[in-house]
Specification:
By secondary structure, this protein is mainly beta. Helix content is 10%, strand content 35%. The protein has a 6-stranded mixed β-sheet with strand order 3-2-1-9-10-4, with no helix packed on it.
Length: 154
């Protein structure tokens, strides 16, 4: 290797060692397409699905099992009736809920005090949603962490 080549290699190595690493700070992007998923960052960067790692709870149909230990209900007057559907072998009967009891024991953590329920999220990402993005060190893989909170109109 010539002295010019060694000098050039030394300059390249020094440049690599001393340059600032790319920022992995969170950014805000906008969903521009759902199928296929595409998120725009900045004025011209479009991130496609293969570049994204998406939190499961942002996807429509995401299911989560929860335990209910306390329930509060509203709408128990004539103006805001509440109904529940009971499925029985003889058909479907609708009845108005006036009271909902959860068994209570002396032990608050007892299974008898808990009701299991499954929640299915139907509000997946939509076009126009703003999302929190965070890139990896190579800027080739982007993590979609959550939707940006929008203050409700007053």
């Amino acid at each position: 290797m010539s002295s010019e080549d060694r000098l050039a290699k030394l300059i390249v190595d020094l440049y690599k060692e001393n340059r600032n690493p790319p920022s992995t700070a969170p950014r805000v992007g906008t969903v521009v397409s759902v199928t296929p998923l595409k998120i725009q960052y900045g004025d011209s960067i479009i991130l496609e699905r293969r570049h994204l790692v998406i939190g499961e709870s942002l996807m429509p149909g995401y299911k989560r099992t929860v335990e209910l230990t306390e329930l509060q209900m509203s709408g128990l007057d004539e103006k805001f009736p509440v109904t529940i559907v009971f499925y029985r072998s003889s058909g479907t009967t609708q009845e108005r809920i006036t009271k909902l009891d959860i068994p209570i024991t002396d032990k608050p953590d007892s299974q008898e005090n808990k009701i299991k329920a499954t929640i299915t999220y139907i509000d997946g990402l939509k076009v126009g949603d703003q999302v929190i993005l965070q890139p990896d060190e190579s800027l080739k893989l982007w993590f979609v962490k959550d939707r940006v909170w929008k203050e409700p109109d007053e």
